[in-house]
Amino acid sequence: MRYGFAKRVQHLQSSAVRDILKITNKGDVISFAGGLPDDELFPVEAVQHAFTKTFESGGKAFQYDATEGYAPLREVLVDRMGKKGIASSVDDIMLTTGSQQAIDLFARVMFNPGDIVLTENPTYLAAVQVFQSYEVKIIPVETDEHGMVPEDLDDKMKKYKPKCVYVVPTFSNPMGKVWSLERRQHLLETAIQKKVIIFEDDPYGEIKFDSSQTYTPISALDDGSHTVYTSTFSKTVVPALRTGWIKGPHQIIRIMAQAKQAADLHSNSLAHHALYHLCTDFDLNGHIKNLRRTYYDRMKVMQRLLDQAELPGLSYTVPKGGMFFWVELPEDIDTTLLLNTAVKKGAAYVPGAPFYVADAKQNTMRLNFTHSTQDKIEKGMGILVEVFQEAASMEHEYQKTN
Ligand code: PMP
């Protein structure tokens, strides 16, 4: 039978990362591929306690709830975001099924086919997938280690008149870098001047290695009318609860709530009740501090192994937080081609190419350092370095004989 799919499905694509995860979840491959927290560090007891309390609280937690989600949890978020300098009220926040749904619902209510969104290059793959599914035209802005390059941003704002700029300014996915305050301010000033909305995606902001540092969210610099901000409990508590949130101008949140009604009425409110209890009874900040320490130590191990890898031309930026190293390898190494060999030998990564919106660099890769123990990082990096060294020396031989 030929199924008559809607035209728009031609814009849906499977995520290269999720496809790799399917392979690496099998067997005993050491995977640096997914953006996964460590299973061993999940606050299982605290989550169990929070659900027990939810179950004991009676039938209300089991009932349908408001589309925007459980109000007391939104109050907790007003407080937590307030501590980062983001002013909000309960009415400006909607709980979503992960921040992934926040991106989708925002795109659904904001974009017509052909609308333009500016992004970093490379950028978060699954946001690109969403934008493409709504037939949005994505224009990359030149990006260096401090954020979007102001001259290129200004040019593209003028030339393309975008509807939105999508950014991950704090410990980005995939590059793990953090924008300078000046670049944040510049983007906001430009957006205000050109009346463009900024979509600030911040799943990793809490995973910072220097607790005394503040990386002011762009939304904290704004009066609330030019930015929407999304974050999630996926990286700090557990991804399986699929709870994220979006905060933005009330008109946008209101229309997004109507779109959410059509999508799923509301997200899982048992998870909302449990997260509310977890945030109020459990030392979540203490837990986050512990994550920061453990992930920092793992990052340092991976950094040492990258430094020791004898691969001339290898470069990376030391992450100040988040979950990823972005590595550039010698130019003749194609990470997409080598992935199969690496997986067969027992280690996986994500090739960098799929994250690019344009001008993909084949010699790049993203390495996650949070999911594996230090021992596994040692072992997995040993395999990867061997694979790349072999490829580099084969390329060298080939060039000598041709
Ligand atoms: N944005 C970015 C930049 C991410 O890396 C992720 C998770 N990989 C998400 C959004 C979605 O996270 P979740 O839906 O689990 O909240």
What's the CATH topology name of the largest domain? Aspartate Aminotransferase, domain 2
Radius of gyration: 22 Å
Number of helical stretches of at least 4 residues: 13
CATH top level of the largest domain? Alpha Beta
- Oligomeric status: single chain
Bound molecules: 4'-deoxy-4'-aminopyridoxal-5'-phosphate
Give the CATH H-level superfamily of the largest domain. Type I PLP-dependent aspartate aminotransferase-like (Major domain)
Secondary structure class reads alpha/beta
Mean pLDDT: 94
Summarize the structure.
By secondary structure, the chain is an alpha/beta fold. It has helices spanning 16-24, 44-56, 71-82, 98-110, 125-133, 150-160, 181-194, 218-221, 250-264, 269-281, 284-308, 335-345, 374-401, and strands spanning 30-31, 93-97, 116-120, 137-141, 143-144, 147-148, 164-167, 197-201, 227-232, 243-247, 315-316, 324-328, 347-348, 350-351, 364-368.
Features of this protein?
402 residues, globular, single chain, four-stranded antiparallel β-sheet, 2 domains, alpha/beta, 14% strand, Aspartate Aminotransferase, domain 1, 13 helices
